């Protein structure tokens, strides 16, 4: 410990380093020394108050300054007198579930979130398996969707959901309610929830702690007050524009812009959407995604998204509203939301003692655009790996523990992401291909396989004979779609999207 105070200065006669070290050895400074606020006669070492007189040796009258010393702790080493400290940046489903698991596992946890009333522009759909797996109360679920309509570019409507049992449904939530519940539960379990905006972090040596710099809004100020905390690890759960991802050079990736309007519609029209969700496909609503009308507590959420033409997002949103205007007529917009959505996992998802989860890691599926379940699951899996490797917060852990989480994640969900990526490339490439996709959705076997995979988050093995039949039907649908594309290119009377909807409405 002599090196800890090699530069300690004393007023009056200079004390020897050996004498100082021998007097303060019982108070090994893990996080450095600082004067206790409001006290004139003591210093704080690793959370223990040390009388200032211990520094007055060899005739020295007082200590005028103690140089802060940080001790690096290697992975696997026991933490004496304290717990492992982890900062979770971002309080959405991934961050809140990570904080919950860390706190339950005995880790000293800090959850930093700027917008505690965050309303992310998200469809808000969750699979039924998530309710039990994450012990969610039914009160935070606005609607139980048991029916869906897939609506093609030419406005052909296909009813989806006929294979669902009476106990199966898709939950619809408002993110401001859903996320708030998860954060408060983490807080009750011991996580420190801080209303703040993360600015940057600095690591003090290769195995040293991190200093988190953030603006605190705990006092209700709009500008925020600069503040810091010191931690051993960081979990980046701060979304598609993650600052943590930038700090670890996680790499660039494609992202979509999601745009959504909350619309309060008349009661008779809301009755239509009581347990029904709609999905619209077509070049008019999105060149590479879909538009949606999802029921919420007392309103509907109407939205769309795109990767390839972000500047036209409002045009696509208007087209989605046009397609649904008969069913939402007379509605009043009560909220407008927009947010980036990742399109694929980042090239790097961890570095040293820093991990990425949720949207920050890129865990949103293609084709369906689902992200809530995978965000929450990734946060939990990452935290559980840290808790296990640290023996409930009593040991230092590093990149090996994080990579264990990533390996488990990739083994469990790689096939799901790959299948949905292929489906998007095959069926979202043109309006005729989307027509073929909607046609296939009418098939009972397709519906059963789709819902079983979605509701229970597994790639369900199919019946070999039915799989062959499905392949034949898929090829047939694609052939017809290509024929339709050829006909469309020759200016045959084929119309799609909003224009087709106007024509259909005019004849009603």
What would you say this structure looks like, in words?
Keywords: Chlorophyll biosynthesis, NADP, Oxidoreductase, Photosynthesis. It holds the Pfam family FAD_binding_3. Catalyzes the reduction of geranylgeranyl diphosphate to phytyl diphosphate, providing phytol for both tocopherol and chlorophyll synthesis. It catalyses: phytyl diphosphate + 3 NADP(+) = geranylgeranyl diphosphate + 3 NADPH + 3 H(+). Its EC number is 1.3.1.83. The protein is of the alpha+beta class and 508 residues long. The chain folds into three domains: 2-65, no CATH class; 85-117 and 176-252 and 344-415, 3-Layer(bba) Sandwich (FAD/NAD(P)-binding domain); 140-166 and 254-338 and 430-508, D-Amino Acid Oxidase, Chain A, domain 2 (2-Layer Sandwich), CATH 3.30.9.10. 35% of the residues lie in helices and 23% in strands. It contains 15 helices and 23 strands. It has helices at 17-24, 93-104, 128-133, 175-188, 243-247, 267-272, 313-323, 325-328, 358-361, 372-389, 399-427, 431-441, 444-456, 464-489, 497-507; strands at 9-11, 33-35, 42-45, 48-51, 62-65, 85-89, 108-113, 125-126, 143-145, 147-151, 157-160, 170-172, 192-203, 210-216, 225-231, 233-236, 255-264, 276-280, 291-295, 300-306, 332-342, 350-351, 354-356. Strands 15-14-13-7-6-16-23-22 form an eight-stranded mixed beta sheet. Helix 2 (93-104) runs parallel beside helix 4 (175-188), helix 2 (93-104) packs parallel to helix 10 and helix 12 (431-441) packs antiparallel against helix 14. The longest helix has 29 residues, at 399-427. It is globular, with a radius of gyration of 28 Å.
